[in-house]
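Duplicate of #3305? Posting structure anyway:
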């Protein structure tokens, strides 16, 4: 086995579905392990230990493994458990991405994310029910849910729908090109069959002449018996050849309905008949100019008829698509080839009714010219008209390889489009852009899309962070005092006077501080505020407590609580 064969075998092994399945399974296991470790590590950072770390890590890994099979239940369960388990933050983003991609239907996806949001908010409120400012908790939890689940879900859903659309466009493009190839092949086949009929008529005419002449010679009294016998053999051979030619052409034409053949005009269907075509067009009211250049030279029968058909088809197209436009027909006898060119101007009047066209006339002309060693070009001309030009050899030339620009199937993309059963790309400019949409453009567009979604997610997170920081600063000002302010407050002062001097303490930063210090006086109502100074240890927080009873301040204390 040579090097190229080994490389191809290696690529086939890498592209095997079984290998990709094993790789996906291995990737899912690695991802589950990483998410489990991250969940356990995050829980340890917030102070959890022991069995809780194991439970959180295993739960994150299991939910990660189940998210593909059961996206909706895993989304809801993760939303319900996330407020209770701080380590689920990375898992939220992964589950949101997977759910947005795999839940079928926009309505179902909206219902699933709504249910997860309700469970997330409900669990958050249950976990912080004893604390103050529940609406603040709801606001912060909503921002957190949007940033960690909704944004990844929307990004995943949009990316998946865009990729699916690109794949569908690629498959549709490949199907259209295959159908076009089939239609073009049928047109070329019909043209070959028409050419076979022309050969039958021409050769049949010549064989008939041979048969007639040999029949006349056979009864000539001046011939010797030996000569008469030889002439009889020739006559029988010509008759047999004519019958065989008719049988072969009949088989080629089986099941194909060709246009009616004008037997009376066979002899004039060559370059000699082009003048008749032009005269007929003029008689019909069209402005047609015929020009000839160079010294006339004979062409092979097939090439001569191909020139006639090029002019006939070009004039027909001009009548259909540009009625009333001036038409120029030029015949040039170049030193090495014969050139026929037909140029029509822009239409001066709309076509009468719907233009009926099979769309394969030019394809047949290209096939006819190729079979005699020539080429045909068709395209737009200056000024909005149309130009058809053919170059034909003088002698008998072997058919040229099939390399027409718009039908050259050897110029193919190195990577076939998805769903394409075979490489049949047609590399015209517009179709090349469409076919490459799933390759170069999809890579650049996918990168731009990913960057845009990431930027949007960062903006949302940044806005949430700025809002949270602003809210935290405001909350701290409502729950913090200077030690000097604490010293100025005197026991026995009126409750209203003290409360007017101190912050309200109704903030999330002071939630959970009550009940952590010394026992409160019986029947009193106490307010705990934070100190603006830091404690002696990083694990403790200095606070001030003011207890009121009977409309007066009955106690104030300064102590430290554990964080």
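Output from current build:
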């Amino acid at each position: 086995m040579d090097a190229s064969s080994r490389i191809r075998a290696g690529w086939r092994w890498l592209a095997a579905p079984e290998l990709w399945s094993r790789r996906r399974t291995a990737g899912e296991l690695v991802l589950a392990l990483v998410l489990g470790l991250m969940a356990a590590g995050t829980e340890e950072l917030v102070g959890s230990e022991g069995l809780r770390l194991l439970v959180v890590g295993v739960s994150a890994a299991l939910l990660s493994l189940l998210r593909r099979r059961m996206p909706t239940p895993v989304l809801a369960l993760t939303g319900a458990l996330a407020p209770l388990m701080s380590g689920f933050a990375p898992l939220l983003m992964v589950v949101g991405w997977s759910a947005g991609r795999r839940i079928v239907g926009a309505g179902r996806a909206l219902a699933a994310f709504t249910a997860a949001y309700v469970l997330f908010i409900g669990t958050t409120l249950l976990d912080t029910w004893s604390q103050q400012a529940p609406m603040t908790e709801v606001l912060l939890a909503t921002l957190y849910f949007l940033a960690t689940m909704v944004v990844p879900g929307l990004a995943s859903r949009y990316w998946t729908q865009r990729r699916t659309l690109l794949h569908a466009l690629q498959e549709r493009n490949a199907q259209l090109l295959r159908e076009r190839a089939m239609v073009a092949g049928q047109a070329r086949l019909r043209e070959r069959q028409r050419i076979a009929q022309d050969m039958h008529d021409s050769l049949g005419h010549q064989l008939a002449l041979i048969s007639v002449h040999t029949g006349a010679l056979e009864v000539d009294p001046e011939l010797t018996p030996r000569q008469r016998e030889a002439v009889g053999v020739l006559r029988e051979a010509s008759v047999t050849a004519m019958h065989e030619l008719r049988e072969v052409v009949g088989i080629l034409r089986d099941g194909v309905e060709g246009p009616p053949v004008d037997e009376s005009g066979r002899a004039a269907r060559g370059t000699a008949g082009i003048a008749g075509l032009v005269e007929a067009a003029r008689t019909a009211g069209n402005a047609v100019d015929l020009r000839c250049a160079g010294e006339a030279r004979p062409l092979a029968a097939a090439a001569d008829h191909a020139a006639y058909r090029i002019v006939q088809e070009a004039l027909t197209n001009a009548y259909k698509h540009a009625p009333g436009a001036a038409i120029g027909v030029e015949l040039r006898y170049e030193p090495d080839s014969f050139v026929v060119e037909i140029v029509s101007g822009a239409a001066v009047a709309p076509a009468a009714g719907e233009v009926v066209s099979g769309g394969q006339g030019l394809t047949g002309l290209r096939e006819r010219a190729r079979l005699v060693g020539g080429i045909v070009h068709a395209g737009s001309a200056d000024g909005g008209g149309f130009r058809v030009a053919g170059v034909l050899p003088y002698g008998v030339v072997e058919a040229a390889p099939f390399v027409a620009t718009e039908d050259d199937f050897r110029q193919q993309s190195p990577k076939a489009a998805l769903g394409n059963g075979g490489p049949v790309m047609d590399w015209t400019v517009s179709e090349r852009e469409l076919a490459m949409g799933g390759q170069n453009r999809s890579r650049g567009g996918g990168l731009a899309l990913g960057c845009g979604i990431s930027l949007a997610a960062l903006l949302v997170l940044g806005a949430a962070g700025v809002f949270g920081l602003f809210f935290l600063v405001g909350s701290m000002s409502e729950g913090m005092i200077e030690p000097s302010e604490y010293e100025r407050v005197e026991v026995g002062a009126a409750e209203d006077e003290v409360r007017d001097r101190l912050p309200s303490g109704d903030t999330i930063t002071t939630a959970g501080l009550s009940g952590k210090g010394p026992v409160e006086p019986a029947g009193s109502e106490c307010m705990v505020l934070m100190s603006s100074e830091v404690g002696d240890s990083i694990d403790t927080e200095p606070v001030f407590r003011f207890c009121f009873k009977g409309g007066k301040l009955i106690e104030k204390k300064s102590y430290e609580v554990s964080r």
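Confirmed duplicate; merging threads. Strands lie at 288-293, 327-333, 338-344, 375-380, 386-392, 480-481, 525-531, 540-549, 552-562. Confidence is low (pLDDT under 50) at residues 255-267, 351-359, 402-443.
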